[in-house]
Amino acid sequence: MDAVSQRWRGLRVPPLLVDGVLALAIMVITGITLGHRLHGQVALTLSGTVLITAGGVFMMLRRPFPLTSLALTSAVGITYTITQQAKSPIGLFMACSAYMVVMRTERRTRAVAIVSVMAVTVVAAAGYAGGELFANLMNGIVVLFGAAIGEATRYRRAYLRELEERALRAEQSRDEEAHRRVTEERLRIAHELHDVIAHHIALINVQSGVAAHVLRTQPAEAEHALALVRTGGRTVLQELTVLLGVLRRSGSPLPTAPTPSLQDLDALIKSFAAAGVQVKWDRPEALGALPDVIELTAYRVIQESLTNVLKHAPGATAQVTITRRPGSLSLSVVDTGRAATATVAHIGAGHGLVGMRERVAAVGGRLTTGPEPAGGFAVRAVLPLETGVMSDDQGVAGGRPDADPERVPGAGELGAGPAGRR
């Protein structure tokens, strides 16, 4: 049944054929009606037959020339009413033409056309036609009926077009929303990849440089550095395996491993200390319960800050401070600058500061970065314990002259330089 319906729905009949069948049907109905004897006389005459045939031909012009078709069929109908003095459905030709005028012309044009035809029909019926007045006015009534059907059809089609446009706009909105979510997910994955492996890669880079530097003079120190490189590489592979496994299992339940929090800072700081970064860190006693997103953001900011110290100021000492205040959590990572004995140069560039700004801005916090007056570099963040309460101030940052040139919404501009923090 559905296949038959689809086939009929997809079948397109030529409009000229439709109009031809319609004109022939009206001609047959008119001929049958007038073929009966009225008051002892045959109503269907030769001149009447000619007028009926002309009406059918003129009606078939209604699609390409709707106004012309209405004028000609109206002339035929009025002429028939005056000359034949007989009741007939010849006004149906006029009604079909009036329908197409309403469908194909603008509002003012169709109003003038229909009113003009009605006026001429009424005048002709009242002044020149004999017989009953109501019977003579039937052509005008039929024209008005055809125009009303056309107007109703016009409004219905406009309504259906509006529904289709709304559905199309809704579909486009869904596509745009899906594209936006895909973009956001890609950014989130990029952040996670950076946060997961950046500091391990930095450790590998630094320790491999140390091993190359002391390989001949201090074999034991070189061996220790290479062991750290091996451990860091193994950790990176494990974390990448977990992350890529999540991406592959799009339809499977996600793993429930805990996200990093401030409880994991001891292990993080020990890994940096093993790489040669001296970290001063006193665990605060009264942090209390914190939202998970705030703990994750604070952990990532400290991790990225210490990674920047390792990459850009090897041998420096970093001070990590975390303080809970009413309604917010403050943290800072301040280093003493590049040590005079450092021998490992930074290789490559990243988006560490940009990523930190985005993370802090996402929870409505405020991030400040920049050089210290006495030397070194500082990263300070204030995170609201209720996310979003600082959104008006988010990302107001001091820029280090030699930092990443990228601009982040709400953040200060960071100039480029030879040894900038990323």
UniProtKB/TrEMBL annotation:
The chain crosses the membrane at residues 16-36, 42-61, 111-128. SUPFAM superfamilies: ATPase domain of HSP90 chaperone/DNA topoisomerase II/histidine kinase. Signal peptide: none annotated. The keyword ATP-binding applies. Residues 185-250 form the Signal transduction histidine kinase subgroup 3 dimerisation and phosphoacceptor domain. InterPro entries: HATPase_C_sf, HATPase_dom, Sensor_HK_TwoCompSys, Sig_transdc_His_kin_sub3_dim/P. Pfam families: HATPase_c (PF02518), HisKA_3 (PF07730). This is histidine kinase.
